[in-house]
Amino acid sequence: MEETKRTARLAGLLYLVSSIPGAFALLYVPGKVFVKGDAAATAERIRASETLLRVGIAAELLGMTLFIFVALVLYRLFKPVREKAALAMMVLILLSIPVSFLNVSTEFAALDFAGGGTASTVLSPLDPRQRDALAYLSLHLHGLGLIVVAQVFWGLWLFPFGICVIRSGFIPRFLGVLLMVAGCGYIAASLAELLLPQDAHAISRVTSVLTAAELPIIVWLLVWGAKPQRRAPA
């Protein structure tokens, strides 16, 4: 049990550490740079906050890289519990990593179009307003790539993760249920953006509450690691 507890706490630590740069890159930076519906203002913010956007790109890459190790440690933790579910959990979250890495290229494109990238001289024949529009479109596509594509895997992996938690015997079952609730939130947000784009913003207010149900497992793993749970008599 001590070995299991150490592995669980390592998973919690990596989970937390990888989430910090991810939250900075995916929540804070877009809020400072992207102005919805205004290409000129967005391009101006990119030019004024080029360093911030570059730091955000680096943080996004770092967070995704660290999450590879989260997946590997969680697989090691839950493999003795339910190997097939643990494998499905690991594969699903790892599939989101290359999608997220590739999606970062749109942020580099936004820098180029706004005049802060290495290809800015090549794009000089374009009208400034066209370049501003393309910079806006690039950041918009970055957001869509995360919400519509990567977020599907962010939701799907939580279902086998939840099964592993429920069957583990050393993590409270309700945390497994919360993981599945969070998985539903991620997938619902993705489907809303794809099928109901006009209502996606309103729906996101609900789905953001559901996805927050993923957070308690981080706290449990980090603080308690693995703790035998009492089972109700059959």
Write the topology of this structure.
Blueprint: H1 2-33, H2 39-48, H3 50-78, H4 83-103, H5 105-114, H6 128-156, H7 158-168, H8 173-195, H9 200-211, H10 215-223
Care to describe what's here?
- This protein is mainly α and 234 residues long.
- It has one domain (2-223).
- Helix content is 79%, strand content 0%.
- Helix 1 runs antiparallel to helix 3, helix 6 (128-156) packs antiparallel against helix 8 and helix 8 (173-195) runs antiparallel to helix 9.
- The chain is elongated, with a radius of gyration of 20 Å.
- The mean pLDDT is 90.
Structure described in brief:
This protein has 10 helices and no strands. The chain is mainly alpha-helical and about 230 residues long.
Largest sheet: none
Rg, Å, rounded: 20 Å
Q: Count structural domains.
A: 1
Mean pLDDT: 90
CA-CA gap between termini? 24 Å
Structural class of the secondary elements?
mainly alpha
Unreliable stretches covering 5 or more consecutive residues: none
Count the DSSP helices: 10
Shape: elongated
Beta-strand content bin: under 5%
Task: Name the helix and strand elements from N-terminus to C-terminus, one letter apiece.
Answer: HHHHHHHHHH
Helix content estimate: over 70%
The total count of strands amounts to 0
